[in-house]
Amino acid sequence: MNYLEKLLDGVEVQWKTLADYADYEQPTKYRVKSKLYSDEYKTPVLTAGKTFLLGYTNETNGIYKASENPVIIFDDFTTANKWVDFDFKVKSSAMKMITSKDESKALLKYLYYWLNTIPSGLVEGDHKRQWISNYANKEIPIPCPDKPKKSLEIQQKIVDILDTFTELTAELTAELTAELTARKQQFEYYREELLSFDKDKVQHLQMGDETLGEFIRGKRFVKTDIIEEGVPTIHYGEMYTHYGTWADQTKSFVSRELVDRKKLRLAEKGDVVIVAAGETIEDIGQGTAWLGNEGVVVHDACFYYKSSLNPKYVAYFTRTRQFHDQIKKHIRTGKISAINSKGLGTAIIPIPSPEEQERIVGILDKFDILTSSISEGLPKEIELRKQQYEFYRALLLDFAKKNIAI
């Protein structure tokens, strides 16, 4: 019998609602008055959502002293929640501050871990306050309710094990993230160096020079046009989330009937698809070399660039600082930033020999593969750790289903 089996062997539990064990407080008196945050200030301002830390305030009144009494902050509308054990203020009143009614019966950290095993079950458009209408009525198992000392001992051991997994996962994530950041910086350095040439030794031309190439805008289609099979298609939003320096397959498709009816435009093998609209200036101009044997439909928030240059060479160039520094003055800003073909065409690109282009692409491909493998490995590794954590959490907290004693 292993440690966990011994810990949970024969344990009886009692099911009661979270409201039986947990108190809540409205955060009104802890709300920040000014949103002028600064890293020079001392007190963190928190939200229960994904962002968590919004900034720091210099306000000294209405600080929640979680360093003395830890708390769970619970978003009333999304059910997101966080464990907090340091002093803070909050941005919004749309949350609850959850504490244990009696730590001699139910440890708050135990309640927190159990709370995170509950699926939210939220319905889209449901704007009810979730704690009172929903979560306070969720039932939680308390081990050995008739033996307070034994109960706390089991709760604490469960908390300790899950704390260890949480800490190990955080450490691993930090290490892998640091490795990825270092490799990306190295990749960016060599990309800039390899794509910089002396103008006296290598010809430089504007990308829009008629002797070199042309930019062709795609044609409009909408997301509802996208289907699971059909003509390969690149939507401009996918350029930020899915595509790298090159691609020979697409994530999305549209029907042949739509292509013919709307006379959609297709990039061919060797063209470079360049995104021309985004939420920020930094989003604009990234290129992906299309290397698929079949033509690919291009969205009207993108251009495809036809030239005699190595397509990967062009795609790598569009991701350099020197390219972006040239085009940013031609980007129109607003709710959506955008650039036209004339603006893209003003960028001057070095044109070494085809052999030199191929050599540069070969070097950068190796960096790209290394960086991508780490990028892909990072979420995979994190997901494995998450699955391992959830397995042990289920093992530790689902024991109640096997030995119910009310």
Automatic annotation (TrEMBL):
The keyword DNA-binding applies. GO terms for molecular function: DNA binding. This is Type I restriction enzyme S subunit. Keywords: DNA-binding, Restriction system. Belongs to the type-I restriction system S methylase family. Signal peptide: none annotated. It comes from Leeuwenhoekiella aestuarii. Residues 13-181, 212-383 form the Type I restriction modification DNA specificity domain. InterPro entries: Restrct_endonuc_typeI_TRD, Restrct_endonuc_typeI_TRD_sf, Type-I_RE_S_subunit. GO terms for biological process: DNA restriction-modification system.
